[in-house]
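Notebook, student rotation project (T.W.).
Task set for the rotation: take a protein with a known small-molecule partner, predict the structure of the complex, and write up what can be learned from the model alone. Partner molecule chosen: flavin-adenine dinucleotide. Sequence and SMILES entered below by T.W., checked by me.
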Amino acid sequence: MTKPRVLIVGAGFAGYHAAKSLARIARGRAEIVLLNPTDYFLYLPLLPEVAAGVLEPTRISVPLSATLPDVRVVIGEADRIDLDGRRVGYQQPDNGAGELTYDRLVLAVGSVNKLLPIPGVTEHAHGFRGLPEALYLHDHIVRQIELAEVAEDPAEREARCTFVVVGAGYTGTEVAAHGQLFTDELATQHPRLGLRPRWMLIDVADRVLPELDPRMSETARRVLDGRGVEVCLGMSVKQATGDGVRLSDGRSVPTRSLVWCVGVRPDPLVDGLGLRTEKGRLLVDEFLGVPGRPEVFACGDAAAVPDLTRPGKITPMTAQHAERQGKLVAHNIAASFGQGRCRPYRHHDLGFVVDLGGRDAAANPLHVPLAGLPAKAVTRGYHLFAMPGNRARVGADWLLDATTRRPGVQLGLVPANDVPLENAAPEMPVRAR
Ligand SMILES: Cc1cc2nc3c(=O)[nH]c(=O)nc-3n(C[C@H](O)[C@H](O)[C@H](O)COP(=O)(O)OP(=O)(O)OC[C@H]3O[C@@H](n4cnc5c(N)ncnc54)[C@H](O)[C@@H]3O)c2cc1C
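Predicted structure of the complex:
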């Protein structure tokens, strides 16, 4: 008798944990196939530390095959889904194509950069969604400092030493906080630079970390102010050019570095399915099933999951929710085959951690606000606990960073053309991630 096949599309927080849990629950009674463009699970919350040179990129890339031995991993990017025929077509990295049939489908394709119609942003800003962007940003920062050091023109020197981050959510705040420490360190390695690199963090909101506990916002603001990061709230970018940005308060800021962290939107793959969506996320019931399609489930950023702890709302796009939804989807798929009973998704937020670099962090485990070293210990402990692999290597990098100087070199492995902001645009059939 052939085993039923469960196809999971996307190996992020939701898909990875769905596959892992299902392998444990099914014990060989189902074939579990995981389709993902890369052969690793990317631990996104530590991406800013890769850009800042604290962590090597492979540390946050957990190999799929090695950590999911009972799962068949297929490398490819889904580009068409035939719901009636129960088939998913995909592009392979070498431009080949393949197709997979399924008995149960889990859509866990996550989210992509959110684009806003601001002149020049698509051409001149860089997003921050994956390893290529983090590696590019790392090299770009080093390159700007090196070019500034030899620039004859003081205006060019100043522009190259100005870094503008748009979006003061957890991603933008961490990028700016880690970035300022990184460029301070680079400045000590380039004594002829002659000026302190300037970082600006811009948001339309009235506080940093607007989506989190206000006490965490206060902690982050205190740390950023103490480091000299210019926090500009209640404003946005009106226009971007190759030489700088114009802000909504009328100021022009000469810069060669615009990092776009204004948030994310669901992956465009879900748009084309003809299924109901909410804010672009695939509408599911509290059991994570797609209404009218009992064999299709969705979870994580790509899914609009009713938040039973906040009636009328959907769960926010966080790793915590994605991971727990992935685990529950595994349980409910097993139930759909007659093993156990379906359970609704109900999860109370356990708090959040934001690493601000150096000895600083803002955390609220179980809603107890922490700052300074206690927050840092909780933040790092949480990440080590939450990572599905590579823990010793991450710990070793943190130790090295605390005791040695960061190597300020650019390897130039990711050219700017490979990480355009518009790589999230729906019309692009295959996206470089
Ligand atoms: C820089 C950064 C920092 C963050 N920090 C935090 C944090 O500190 N705390 C927190 O809670 N959240 C954080 N988040 C948000 C959190 O990472 C997301 O909410 C979480 O990753 C969502 O999990 P997911 O599985 O839905 O999507 P993802 O983790 O994004 O995974 C989606 C997967 O699907 C794959 N995929 C996409 N399209 C296709 C396709 N067509 N075919 C096959 N596979 C596909 C992707 O390559 C990826 O592997 C951060 C996000 C970013 C970008």
